[in-house]
Amino acid sequence: MPQQMLQPPLTPPDLLNATLADQGFAVLGAASVCALAGLSVEALRALEPSWNHLPPDQYLKDGGRYRRRRHASFEVTGDQVQAMPHRAHWQPLSYNALHGGMQRWFEPMGQEVVHQVAWLHLLCWLARVASKAQGHQTWFTEAHQFRIDTTDGIGRPTPEGAHRDGVNWVAVFLVGRHSIKGGETRVFDMDTPRGQRFTLSEPWSLLLLDDSRVIHETTPIQPEQEGGWRDTLVVTLRSGGFLDAPAP
Questions:
Q1: pLDDT tens-digit profile of 162-216?
Q2: DSSP class of residue 86?
Q3: What DSSP assignment string belongs to 15-60?
Q4: Domain at 13-239, CATH from 3.30.70.260, 2.60.120.620, 3.30.70.20, 1.10.10.10
């Protein structure tokens, strides 16, 4: 019997800013993402083959083999995107109790992705949303391509549990899911018991989070048949600078 999934609470595109201000997160369908970013869904789907070539994450402390990823960093100001020299991804233990405090050098995202016009449009649109909420500025942006698979029978999209990322904004795009069950998204208020749970299933649908107000997690995935996986793109935007390890 097919798994019953809770449908995401989609936000109309014209209410995106108001919804973010009201509840600290919003969910957009792919058509809304494309309309707001000025893109076609075909342009976004042209990025998808790169997810088939992600190297294994060598830093998983639980010993799992279920996560593959690439990473890249950018400075985005208005309609200008500046790619940064490849750098380590770092989070303090206060934000990531499992993998915090480590300089994690993931393989860089491929040029076939970061040079695409669709990619640049996507980053600029996210920066515009952030600037609408917090004022025009340079956004220090990190992008992560993830594939969570069921090689070990179970895959954990967020092995650190419910968390914040230590940035201003987090964008989680569901790129695709294949032959899995689970992978439910959960978003909780920082200061109240309010929360929502739902499952992203439409390619290029988006969960956009105010990282100062909500915490989030995604439940483990299990195979419905052999070879199941879940692909996401996570883009974070931070004001003032990248989140780097403190100087010794």
A1: 888 999 999 999 999 999 999 999 999 988 778 999 999 999 999 999 999 999 9
A2: P
A3: GHHHHHHHHSEEEE-HHHHHHHHT--HHHHHTTGGGGGGPPBPTT-
A4: 2.60.120.620
CB neighbour list of residue 190: distance below 8 Å, 6 or more residues apart: 164, 212, 213, 214, 215
Asked if 49 contacts 147 with a C-beta cutoff of 8 angstroms, the reply is no
Contact 142, 236 (CB under 8 A): yes
Measured distance CA(143)–CA(167) in Å, rounded: 12
Residues 67, 146: contact at Cβ < 8 Å? yes
Distance of CA 195 to the CA centre of its chain: 19
Buried residues in 38-68 as b, exposed as e (16+ CB within 10 A): ebeeebbeebeebbeebeebeeeeeebebbb
Residue with tokens 């995935």: 221
- Give, as one character, the DSSP assignment of residue 6: P
33 contacts 130 by C-beta, under 8 angstroms: no
Say how far apart CA 49 and CA 56 lie, in whole Å: 16
Q: How far, in Å, are 52, 115, 168 from residue 128 at the CA level? A: 30, 20, 13
Q: Chain-centre distance of CA 132, in angstroms?
A: 20
Residue located via tokens 């990025």: 47
- DSSP element (H, E) containing 120: helix 117-134
pLDDT, tens only, 39-88: 999 999 999 999 999 999 998 878 789 999 999 999 999 999 999 999 99
